[in-house]
Write a sequence for this structure.
């Protein structure tokens, strides 16, 4: 006998492990045990096999690897005796899961055991099959399971029924084979069989419309009768739980009636009486009774309308909501969310109670209640509800503030009756929890502020006060900085006072102080500091008296470790010092931002910009179609190659001039309009309302600057003024002057410079399609630019949309950020994303790519995968 | 369609004809996300965790990889063990709900879908605990440690494929006892030949 395998008993091993004082000791014990088990495995030792497997299962539970024991399970299962099989199947279920290929080897043993004469061995096999069956096994063993549904012993029949659930879920095609056997099982008296047959019936109905129709016709009446009997049955100690006879069976019956009654008036009629009886007669002082009532309410809500029953259901929920038990309140909130679409008025009556639940000490209840509140808000109650929520924001837990602010912001945004109220509420939220809000929230606030021209003065003064008191909330600081930069003059001169405001005196120096403080605060990040610099630049023109002081502050950032700040500092310094004539026009007030465009962009619902075959290398990130309002364009757009003047909407000015990532989250390098040239950068900068007469000199200025100085700096200065995104988009170009004056030269990439490739449908299923459009830069045939555009033909919106791709080693893949992560339904809108693929074996191998698309549909994670190997050749 | 693509993927991966340089993110995510494809059982998994965070029993009815399993256990014990005594027995987690109940030093947890009946699952937990209690005679944590396989056998008589199998405690007790006596009988038979197997099955 092998000296290692004599080993210890299971009990002794567990004792030894429990006696370990440290993790290292435990590891040592486990290592020793594993070594002896391995030795036994390799010796193919029979005597201790099941003891070893039991040990392995314990070791597995502690989290150690035990894959070497998998074959032992199979050997034990193949053994003839019951004890070996019992532990073998347990090991199989514990150590393996359906994804392991080893599992295929067990199919044959399972088949034999399903036909075994010992009913307990049949039971073991059914249990294992039900818990870990893969699709292949389900297909192979379905006939055996189907036969076992008629086995003489009820305990085997019930196991076979649950096993069938697994089978039809793995292989829905097999569903029809089970319909008839289930119909006869539903007539049985044995509770276990009934319980499992109902469950199987419900799953069949989910999978197959035909099965649903069949059961609805044949079984509704019978099931109603079974429920009646169950409810009215005399005391049965075997099934009794706190005075209720078999609540599990009642709950399942209510559930199957819900499925059968949903959308069918006749079937619903049949069950009205018994539902009313359950709803009124069930005791609600114990959990089991409440579980039944809860299920009953859900069934009443789902079946076809019957006014009386619904009132009953809503009353039960009202009772639940005022219950002291947290579990009951939780399920009440849960259920009210479903009830709201059926009887909104009735749910509104409980508003006060629900609002109290938002402030509960239990995180689960708070979360449910908040969801519910956001569904309850409408035009008439938005003001008091928002006030309550904002008041609560002050005292809420920090980890709840994130959820809470998101909800408040969406409520305020959706239902605000007037702009001043919106601005007030948002300011309160930002002051209270500015560190918890998402970027889109304060971006949206800025859009609203620019649109409310009569409130500019009011807002900037309110923000100035807010920044004094809540300077530690990043978001409020950013909005304040932006507004002070824009409307600093209104702040100092108290212009546009509203009646409700208290007058305040702020000097120009105070304003500059405020920004200086914000820019030097430790907690300020790059974005805030960059915004401070832009605001200072703007103020230097609004407050000529402070110009020198501002210049000093700006200069301090010349030594910043952050490249972005350093660059801005240098650029702005040079603008303040050398280009007085240019400055006032550069820092004009922002044009009013178009709310519709902005919200449209956020929702990603703008129609995709069809890309033309003009493979222009310069691709600006903001490729929204522009409207012509730029006379300068003609001056700069000297190139005859440009077929149509680029057009521009005000939205882009804001983005470009803001000089930070405002709005860019939605548009960053997203929808890319290929037909664009470097002139746009200038255009965006200079066309902010400057009179056309001066255009000539402006252009000259810029050109002379580029000659005066080091070309690179100046052009970058101008780019820097626009947006960091633009800068990065242009980085690939060798000559910055060329960027600027792209239009002068012949357009370097005419379509005939390289071969064109037809677009490729890279992925398509019933709802989602993905189209690749290809373009190549001349001179670098290895590099392919791919524009992927996604369309969603279903009626649902896909959120959290993520596209991923992988390529073989001879390819290099560069993915740019997508235009959005929300894909609206019905094909109205798309997401685009740029890919750049470099083929190191160009000419020898063609492209191949694996893709993975994940998104959320109704909060459910969805995943699509595919491989694309039909790329055009020569890519 | 998706299943088809997936199987093709597996084939590609197995044949190793093309070596894919996977994006790191894919390889990380692929572990957990396969579950999306698999149709859902009512109860996705059952966990027994001690108050110290030690795992006493795990049963997975939906496929989770080993890596994912230990992550789930870590996450959930962090969430559940820290909850106060008076709070409700449900936690929302990754779009699912975990229903838990504490018995002495042990937390019994079951993970269900958003729209399943939480109160019923509490009742199922209690059902299981009562059966354990009858079997061991006022069960304690030590019973479940040293006889963990028995706890599994009982669970297999209560749940299959994440669905409730039997609502009668008596029936479950009878079935488990019958199987235990089968094992005993086999043991005695073997003991008469040699006592080696008898030692091993203790």
């Amino acid at each position: 006998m092998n000296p290692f395998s004599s080993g210890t008993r299971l009990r002794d091993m567990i004792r030894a492990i429990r006696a370990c004082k440290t993790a290292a000791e435990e590891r040592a014990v486990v290592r020793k045990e594993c070594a002896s088990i391995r030795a036994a495995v390799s010796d193919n030792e029979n005597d201790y096999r099941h003891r070893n497997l039991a040990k392995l299962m314990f070791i597995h539970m502690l989290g150690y690897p035990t894959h070497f024991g998998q074959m032992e399970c199979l050997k034990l299962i193949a053994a003839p005796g019951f004890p070996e099989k019992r532990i073998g199947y347990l090991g199989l279920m514990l150590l393996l899961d359906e994804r392991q290929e080893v599992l295929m080897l067990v199919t044959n043993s399972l088949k034999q055991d399903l036909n075994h004469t010992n009913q307990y061995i049949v039971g073991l096999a059914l249990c294992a099959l039900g818990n870990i069956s893969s699709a292949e096994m389900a297909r192979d063993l379905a006939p055996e399971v189907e036969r076992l549904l008629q086995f003489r012993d009820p305990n085997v029949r019930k196991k076979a029924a649950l096993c069938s659930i697994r089978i039809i879920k793995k292989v829905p095609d097999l569903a029809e084979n089970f319909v008839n056997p289930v119909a006869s099982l539903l007539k049985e008296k044995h509770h276990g069989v009934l319980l499992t047959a109902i469950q199987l019936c419900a799953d069949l109905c989910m999978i197959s419309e035909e099965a649903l129709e069949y059961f609805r016709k044949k079984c509704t009446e019978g099931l109603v009768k079974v429920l009646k009997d169950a409810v009215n049955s005399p005391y049965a100690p075997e099934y009794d739980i706190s005075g209720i006879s078999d609540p599990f069976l009642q709950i399942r019956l209510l559930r199957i009636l819900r499925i059968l009654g949903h959308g069918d008036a006749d079937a619903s009629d049949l069950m009205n009486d018994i539902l009313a009886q359950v709803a009124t007669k069930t005791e609600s002082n114990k959990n089991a009774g409440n579980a039944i009532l809860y299920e009953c309410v859900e069934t009443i809500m789902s079946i076809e309308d019957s006014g009386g029953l619904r009132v009953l259901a809503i009353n039960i929920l009202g009772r639940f909501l005022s219950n002291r038990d947290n579990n009951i309140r939780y399920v009440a909130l849960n259920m009210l969310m479903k009830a709201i679409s059926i009887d909104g008025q009735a749910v509104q009556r409980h508003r006060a109670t629900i609002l109290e639940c938002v402030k509960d000490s239990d995180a689960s209840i708070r979360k449910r209640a908040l969801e519910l509140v956001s569904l309850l808000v409408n035009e008439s109650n938005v003001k008091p509800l928002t006030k309550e929520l904002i008041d609560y924001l002050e005292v809420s837990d920090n980890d709840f503030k994130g959820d809470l602010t998101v909800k408040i912001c969406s409520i305020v945004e959706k239902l605000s009756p007037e702009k001043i109220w919106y601005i007030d509420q948002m300011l309160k939220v930002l002051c209270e929890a500015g560190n918890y809000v998402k970027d889109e929230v304060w971006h949206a606030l800025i859009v609203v502020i620019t649109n409310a021209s009569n409130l500019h003065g009011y807002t900037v003064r309110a923000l100035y006060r807010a920044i004094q008191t809540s300077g530690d909330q990043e978001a409020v600081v950013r909005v304040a900085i932006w507004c002070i930069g824009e409307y600093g003059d209104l702040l100092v001169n108290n212009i546009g006072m509203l009646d409700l405001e208290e007058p305040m005196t702020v000097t120009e120096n105070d304003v500059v102080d405020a920004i200086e403080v914000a820019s030097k605060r430790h907690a300020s990040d790059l974005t805030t500091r960059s915004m401070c610099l832009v605001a200072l630049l703007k103020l230097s023109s609004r407050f000529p008296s402070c110009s020198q002081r501002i210049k000093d502050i700006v200069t301090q950032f010349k030594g910043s470790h952050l490249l972005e700040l350093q660059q801005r500092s240098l650029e702005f310094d040079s603008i303040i010092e050398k280009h007085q004539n240019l400055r006032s026009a550069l820092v004009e007030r922002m044009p009013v931002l178009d709310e519709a465009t902005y919200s449209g962009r956020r929702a990603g619902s703008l129609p995709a910009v069809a890309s033309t075959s003009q493979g222009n290398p310069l691709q600006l990130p903001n490729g929204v179609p522009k409207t012509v309002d730029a006379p300068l364009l003609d001056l700069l757009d000297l190139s005859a190659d440009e077929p149509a003047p680029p057009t521009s909407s005000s939205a882009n000015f804001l983005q470009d001039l803001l000089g930070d990532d405002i709005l860019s989250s939605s548009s960053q390098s997203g929808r890319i309009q290929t037909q664009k040239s470097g002139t746009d950068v200038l255009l965006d900068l200079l066309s902010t309302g400057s009179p056309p007469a001066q255009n000539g000199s402006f252009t000259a200025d810029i050109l002379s600057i580029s000659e005066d100085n080091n070309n690179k700096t100046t052009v970058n200065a101008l780019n820097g003024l626009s947006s960091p995104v633009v800068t990065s988009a242009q980085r690939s170009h060798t000559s910055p002057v060329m960027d600027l004056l792209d239009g002068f030269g012949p357009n370097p990439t005419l379509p005939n410079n390289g071969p064109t490739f037809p677009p490729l449908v890279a992925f398509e299923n019933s709802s989602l399609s993905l189209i690749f459009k290809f373009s190549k830069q001349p001179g670098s045939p290895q590099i392919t630019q791919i524009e992927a555009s996604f369309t969603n033909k279903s009626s649902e919106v896909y959120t959290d949309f993520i596209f991923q791709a992988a390529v073989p080693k001879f390819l290099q893949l560069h993915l740019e950020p997508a235009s959005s992560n929300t894909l609206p339904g019905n094909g109205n809108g798309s997401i685009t994303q740029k890919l750049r693929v470099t083929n190191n074996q160009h000419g020898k191998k063609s492209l191949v790519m694996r893709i993975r698309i994940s998104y959320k549909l109704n909060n459910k994670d969805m995943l699509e995968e595919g491989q694309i190997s039909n790329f055009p050749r020569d890519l | 369609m998706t299943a088809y693509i997936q199987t093709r993927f597996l084939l590609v991966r197995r044949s190793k004809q093309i070596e894919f340089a996977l994006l790191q993110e894919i390889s990380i995510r692929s572990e957990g996300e396969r579950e999306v494809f698999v149709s859902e059982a009512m109860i996705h998994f059952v966990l027994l965790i001690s108050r110290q965070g030690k795992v006493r029993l795990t049963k997975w009815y939906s496929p989770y990889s080993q890596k994912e399993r230990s992550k789930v256990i870590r996450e959930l014990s962090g969430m559940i063990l820290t909850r106060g005594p008076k709070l409700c027995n449900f936690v929302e987690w990754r779009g699912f709900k975990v229903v838990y109940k504490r018995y002495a030093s042990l937390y019994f947890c079951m993970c269900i879908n958003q729209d399943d009946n939480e109160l019923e699952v509490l009742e199922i937990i209690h059902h299981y605990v009562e059966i354990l209690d009858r079997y061991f005679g006022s069960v304690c944590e030590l019973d479940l440690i040293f006889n963990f396989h028995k706890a599994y056998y009982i669970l297999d008589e209560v749940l299959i494929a994440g669905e409730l199998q039997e609502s009668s405690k008596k029936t479950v007790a009878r079935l488990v006892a019958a199987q235990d006596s089968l094992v005993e009988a086999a043991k005695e038979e073997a003991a008469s030949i040699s006592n080696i197997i008898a030692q091993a099955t203790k």
